[in-house]
């Protein structure tokens, strides 16, 4: 049977991908960020993760405001990495496991989540920015991806509680798949940042660290928060944090935090945290 062995929360700042592609891993401004991912990559390799389920958001690359789904799941053997204006990245296409993805889609619909299904669409930095920091990619990725896009751009957005329940439904889907797979769930986005308007450049480290503590120990408090609460505390774009609740919902009640790295050097608090599920 498929099992969830752990979860990762990670920022998906597009400049992470740019810095990675330009070989800035040892640059003094970037080294604290890249070093923070090394324990997570080592854990994934040691535990031989077969699949990464990504809860991420599309930044108007595959979807646009004239047709922007609340929840969308990719089903396909491959997904190209999007060119977001800086040219094609030197990464192989993301691999998919169609039978596993289709099983998750059917299970979620039967669990009363009405999904949009997409195929062969490009995946942008919401997933692709942190991915090469987690998995090696030469000559190819070591496993497959299940991309689950969540609307955090066009109101009305799903609530934090709805995202948590999506994660719970994804867990039920994974655990009902009759093939031995080792699955890790990944929530991306955030933490505090705002990239437009009067509060451009806003960050709130105190709130970021409180969010991480609540995510681990009391996610119910985070589910009770409104979108306005997230925006007030962390800036307009920090509403992306509701995607971390999907990851947390998929993990179940018993988890252990193995690693956390928080680095604030730009307009976004760049963070990675690793949880291991406990039996």
UniProtKB/TrEMBL annotation:
It holds the Pfam family LigB. Transmembrane segments: none annotated. It comes from the Bacteria. Residues 8-270 form the Extradiol ring-cleavage dioxygenase class III enzyme subunit B domain. The keyword Oxidoreductase applies. GO terms for molecular function: dioxygenase activity. InterPro entries: Gallate_Doxase_N, Xdiol_dOase_suB. It comes from Ideonella azotifigens. Keywords: Dioxygenase, Oxidoreductase. SUPFAM superfamilies: LigB-like. Signal peptide: none annotated. This is Gallate dioxygenase.
């Amino acid at each position: 049977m498929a099992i969830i062995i752990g979860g990762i929360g990670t920022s998906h700042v597009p400049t992470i991908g740019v810095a990675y592609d330009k070989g800035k891993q040892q640059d003094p401004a970037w080294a604290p960020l890249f070093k923070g991912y090394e324990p997570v990559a080592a854990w994934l390799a040691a535990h031989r993760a077969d699949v990464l389920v990504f809860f991420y958001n599309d930044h108007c690359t595959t979807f646009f405001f004239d047709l922007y789904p609340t929840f969308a799941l990719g089903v396909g053997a491959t997904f190209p990495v999007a060119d977001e204006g800086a040219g094609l990245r030197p990464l192989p296409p993301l691999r998919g496991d169609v039978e596993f993805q289709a099983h998750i889609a059917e299970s979620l619909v039967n669990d009363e989540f009405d999904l949009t299904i997409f195929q062969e669409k490009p995946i942008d930095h919401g997933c692709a920015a942190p991915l090469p920091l987690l998995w090696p990619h030469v000559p190819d990725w070591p496993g497959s991806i299940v991309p689950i896009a969540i609307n955090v751009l066009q109101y009305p957005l799903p609530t934090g509680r709805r995202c948590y329940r999506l994660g719970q439904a994804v867990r039920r889907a994974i655990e009902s798949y009759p093939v031995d797979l080792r699955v890790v769930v990944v929530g991306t986005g955030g933490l505090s940042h705002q990239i437009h308007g009067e509060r451009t450049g806003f960050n709130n480290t105190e709130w970021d660290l409180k969010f991480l503590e609540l995510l681990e120990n009391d996610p119910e408090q985070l589910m009770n928060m409104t979108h306005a609460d997230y925006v007030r505390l962390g800036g307009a774009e920090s509403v992306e944090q509701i995607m971390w609740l999907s990851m947390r919902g998929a993990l179940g009640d018993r988890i252990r935090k193995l690693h956390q790295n928080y680095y604030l050097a730009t307009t976004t608090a760049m963070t990675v945290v690793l949880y291991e599920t406990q039996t």
